[in-house]
Amino acid sequence: MNDTPSKLYKYTSPDSAEQIVANSSLQWSSPLIFNDLEELQKVPTLSPSIEESMPLFIDKVFKCAFISKKKNTAQYSKEFAEVAEATKFAIKQGIKEQHLRLSFPKLENTNRIAQNLKKLVHNAFSIPQLRILCLTEANDNETMWTQYASDSTGCCIEFTPGTSSDSYFSNAKKVDYHAAKPIVGSAYDMLVHGVPDNIAEKAIDAIYYAKPPSRSHEKEWRLITSKPDENGKLFSFHEFNTQDLTAITFGHKAEPSFIDNLSEIAVQKYEHIRIYKAEKIDSETQLVCLR
């Protein structure tokens, strides 16, 4: 588990910055409006897969079919136990094991377990009520100044996790950058022991705390919540404690009027606020302290 950085940042446009600072609230967005659709293409997968696990699953069924009833089988799922019992009954009826093995993948009980597993894994992350807050541990990234702070005309807002007792920033989780499909578990384990209760949480982690390597410069951290009462909406606003907002850095292209207006609001609402202005000096960016 990653420790939350001592500082987290939000690059933002001038209009959004005024809303954040004036209302002490941040917009948590639905993943449906993310600008990087590649994130949503990574349907969670199982390793080994259902197909790869089926021979091992069948071996396990036949092994359990000969277990005495007195032996504890609580470690297996109800569905698996039913298949094992059906297999035991078939063997008692004189059906040869080799014939059963050939027909096993076509049996109704086996197909039902496999299909239910597929549905659970693929649907676990499809929660329309999700709201996500994206932050970063980097406050000096030129690409992010351009992309998220309106080509450096906006600002970068600093939050300090844990400053207040009710700070939600401390719950932020680090985003991993990789190209592989997210793996949420072993199909064999789930076929035999059942789908774990935390499969939805694991699928959400695998999908929404992962991005392609091309975005690694963002050094992103995220917070995720669910708003079932706002199903169908694309974003929600969540207030933060005023103690959590600790600094504002204006981009080097920020208009003087924007700097003056936002600084006035910030000083009135946040007594502890530090305010900076990025300046380009000899092609290098330096911060000038305004307050």
For the biggest β-sheet, the strand order reads 1-5-12-13-14
Radius of gyration from the CA trace? 27 Å
The 3D shape can be described as elongated
Task: Give the uncertain stretches in residue-range form.
Answer: none
Q: What would you call the structural class?
A: alpha/beta
SSE succession: EHEEHHHHEHEEEEHHEEEEHEE
What's the number of extended β-strand segments?
Answer: 14
User: Treating each run of at least 4 consecutive H or I residues as one helix, how many helices?
Assistant: 9
Average pLDDT: 84
**Largest beta-sheet details:** 5 strands, mixed
Task: Report how far apart the termini are.
Answer: 36 Å
Tell me the fraction of residues in β-strands, as a range: 15-25%
**Helical percent range?**
25-40%
Describe this structure in words.
This protein is of the alpha/beta class. It has nine helices and 14 strands. A five-stranded mixed sheet has the order 1-5-12-13-14. It has a three-stranded antiparallel sheet with strand order 4-10-6, with no helix packed on it. β12, α9 (256-269) and β13 (274-281) form a beta-alpha-beta unit. The protein is elongated, with a radius of gyration of 27 Å. The two termini are 36 Å apart.
List keywords for this structure.
alpha/beta, elongated, 291 residues, 22% strand
